[in-house]
Write a structure and sequence with these properties.
mainly alpha
Length: about 260
């Protein structure tokens, strides 16, 4: 299959899942790029280049459908950008795979916790704005280092802490646009200063990035509508199941099975 068409399909699938559940665009897209032998830093840069466009469309959809908690958005954006810039700079200098086992364990534990909350039908609560600072810092760093992880880290943390799933997903998706722009700018700066030695081969991923952009833009406008329509309990279950599935998938990758 043509590279552009393959990644267009990947982009549609990844953005449909990410827009509805607040996570997995980066994980799905990066996993496909890594499977094609693309180095981790290059895969992350390619995904974030595509996300500049797709997260903007997704954020617009969530804002239009009133899924954003504006009180939590600003501190989440600031903390996420700080963590993301740091993670992008670190990734272009070292192999970020060393932290993958910890991310897998986190996803599995939080996924199980969210499923438990859904099973006991625990009602959402109003989250304090201070809680978004550590979430944003960790989520931004892991997103840059792993080429995906903002949604799975931050959306899961907000839902696990008792936040309303619809507001958590809409707020995290909207904040992701600013995070993605900051991470992409850091990759460009690392390229320009010579800190990133592998950057010269990035142009070879142009067809893949274009496919991810077009596919993501096709699916992104439906994000806000989907989240608004899915019942709260069903959305909570879906987030928990997806987190455990992501943990299992990445665990199999670490074990060399995939």
């Amino acid at each position: 299959m043509d590279v552009f068409l393959l990644f267009l399909a990947v982009g549609v699938l990844a953005q449909a899942v990410d827009g509805a559940l607040g996570m997995a665009y980066g994980v799905i897209s990066s996993s496909v790029l890594l499977a094609f032998g693309v180095p981790p830093a290059m895969a992350s840069a390619s995904v974030h280049a595509a996300e500049v466009f797709t997260t903007g469309a997704s954020a617009t959809s969530h804002i239009m459908h009133k899924n954003v908690d504006w009180r939590l958005l600003r501190p989440l954006v600031v903390a996420g950008v700080i963590g993301g810039v740091l993670g992008a700079y670190v990734l272009t200098g070292i192999n970020g795979a060393v932290i993958k086992p910890f991310v897998v364990a986190y996803l599995a534990l939080v996924g199980a916790w969210i499923l438990w909350r859904a099973g006991h039908d625990i009602r959402p609560r109003r989250l304090p704005s201070l809680i978004t600072w550590p979430m944003g810092l960790v989520g931004g760093f892991l997103d840059a280092v792993g080429g995906g992880g903002w949604g799975s880290t931050v959306s899961s943390a907000m839902v696990g802490a008792g936040g309303e799933p619809r507001r958590a997903i809409g707020t995290v998706n909207t904040a992701e646009f600013f995070l993605t722009v900051a991470i992409s700018a850091t990759f460009v700066w690392s390229l320009a200063t010579g800190h990133w030695e592998e950057a010269g081969a990035l142009k070879s991923q142009g067809a893949a990035v274009a496919g991810l952009v077009v596919g993501g833009l096709i699916a992104a406008p439906f994000a806000g509508w989907i989240v608004k329509r899915i019942p709260r309990k069903a959305l909570t279950y879906a987030v928990g199941v997806l987190l455990i599935a992501l943990a299992a998938f990445q665990g199999l990758q670490l074990a060399g099975v995939l």
